[in-house]
Hints:
Blueprint: E1 25-29, E2 39-43, E3 48-55, E4 58-63, H1 74-80, E5 88-95, H2 105-112, E6 125-134, E7 137-138, H3 144-155, E8 162-164, H4 172-181, E9 186-191, E10 199-208, E11 211-222, E12 229-238, E13 241-248, H5 254-265, E14 281-283, E15 288-294, E16 296-297, E17 303-304, E18 307-313
Parallel strand pairs: 1-10, 6-8
Antiparallel strand pairs: 2-9, 3-4, 3-5, 5-6, 6-7, 9-10, 11-12, 11-14, 11-15, 12-13, 15-18, 16-17
Amino acid sequence: MTKTLRKKTVPAAPADPMPRRVEPCVATLVDKPPKGPQWAFEVKWDGYRLAVHVEPGEVRAITRGGYDWTRKFALIVAEARQLGHASMILDGEAVVLDDQGRSDFGLLQRAVGKKPSLHEPSEIIFFAFDLLYLDGHDLRSLPLGERRSRLEPIIAGRTGPIRFSEEVHADGAEFFRAACELGLEGIIAKRRDKPYHSGRRPEWLKIKCTRRDWFVIVGYERSTVPGAIGRLLLAAKKGDGLVYVGGCGTGWSNKESVQLRELLDAIPAKRPPVSLKRKGAIFSEPLLVAEVEYRAWTQDGKLRHPSFKRVGQRAEEVEVYHLD
């Protein structure tokens, strides 16, 4: 009697190995929206850039800087498990919305922080705007339009922690005006016909309603008010170093000014972090950053009419202004 031997079924290996991390594509800052049908427009979200990696035995939330913040975004991770796919990488932004539906970075910081806050982690929303990997296939070589067409049926219509970042079908200039009137930070423009490339790219553009960026605090000058700060000394990144871009002397309360000075006095610099000869400058280690609103750049590379908004830490996932 002849026996029929049955071959064991071995699961097929994925066509493309899933990367452990993808360096994100970063938008280039420009002054006005581009024109042409090849451009797609979205709201510019003010939050933490995240890549959500879904694998059969693991889901991870990876920040722009490569940190694993899965625990901070537990509800987003739990939702990602329910999307119906064995493996995927979602690219997007984690935000907290204010009462008018606008993303607010300060609210997000408090929601993920250790201090008590009126905003809970359950209020954090992940707006997914790109799909980089799906069920064994690396999608980064596909045009944005095709990647988005695969992402939309997975997420569109969901109202939980993960939502779809919708494209706005409008003229770029009109959308930009409307965004600014609504108090949004700005808009993003992306080429529909381009693949996904890591790093700062010309096919992704950001247009801000006001120029508002993060700069490294490298020191301060004393105020005539005892214990307070007169001017913050600010720097931008250039290559692997820092370049002085001017001082900021407005935007804080007296209480905030005193608190800032206490923070900086606790981290005195052993040597100046930037090349600056300025009488009365007190240098600090470049560990803190300030978000600053300003009108433009002067011809000698300094901030024009800067105003302080808030302070943060470089270890957080904030994008320090880069001069390169």
